[in-house]
Write a structure and sequence with these properties.
By secondary structure, the chain is an alpha+beta fold. It is built from 4 helices and 7 strands. The protein has helices spanning about 60-70, 80, 95-105, 170-185, and strands at about 5, 10-15, 120-130, 140, 145, 150-155, 165-170. Strands 3-6-7 form a 3-stranded antiparallel beta sheet. A two-stranded antiparallel sheet has the order 1-2.
Length: about 180
């Protein structure tokens, strides 16, 4: 019997004569009999696009729909419904707003993603946290507070849903890393 090459991982598969050909590759576990190819017909630039070929929308199977619902939540809530900025579109030029947002994002060193709506967030500034109103937690392993005031927080605002997020400023990140290393030694 001639050895077969897996189309997925390019491994040579030698079949056991008693068991016969396998349905899946023993190396990458991909299906061998159902190897599928996708043929794309390229049209001439002059040919008219009638659009009828692409009208069929993808319909997930019940199992896929269940997985999507489990991962992303309700299919009634789309990401566009999370964009608070869209409700201001009637009275304001949101295209100009989006262009400005893109320009600001291009100049930022760090661009976190909004946890709520997945838009990129704008660095709005820094906030100083002094000892007043902040009670540090003393970690027994390092026998010191995890974060010692004063420290600075980067403040980010989402241009889509206007949620605000904070993260530790660069200098204070380094200070925290160094304090952990020195306490460990």
């Amino acid at each position: 019997m001639e050895p077969t090459v897996c189309p997925w991982c390019q491994s040579e598969i030698v079949w056991d004569e008693e068991i016969g050909p396998e349905d899946t590759c023993p190396h990458c576990a991909n299906e061998l009999k159902g190897y599928r190819t996708l043929n794309i017909a390229l049209q001439d630039e002059d040919a008219e696009d009638d659009g009828e070929e692409y009208e069929e929308a993808y319909e997930p199977s019940d199992e896929e729909a269940g997985d999507l619902h489990r991962i992303w939540g309700s299919d009634h809530e789309s990401l566009s419904s999370l964009r608070t900025v869209d409700k201001y579109g009637e009275n304001h030029d949101l295209f100009a707003f989006e262009e400005t947002v893109e320009g600001i994002l291009d100049q930022q060193e760090e661009v976190p993603e909004c946890l709520h709506c997945r838009e990129y967030m704008l660095h709005a500034g820094t906030q100083r946290v002094s000892g007043e109103g902040f009670q540090p937690v003393h970690a027994p392993l390092i026998q010191a507070p995890i974060l010692q005031p004063p420290y600075d927080l980067n403040v980010y605002v989402c241009p889509g849903c206007f949620h605000v997020q904070y993260n530790l400023a660069e200098n204070d990140r380094l200070r925290m890393i160094k304090s952990f290393i020195h306490k460990k030694e």
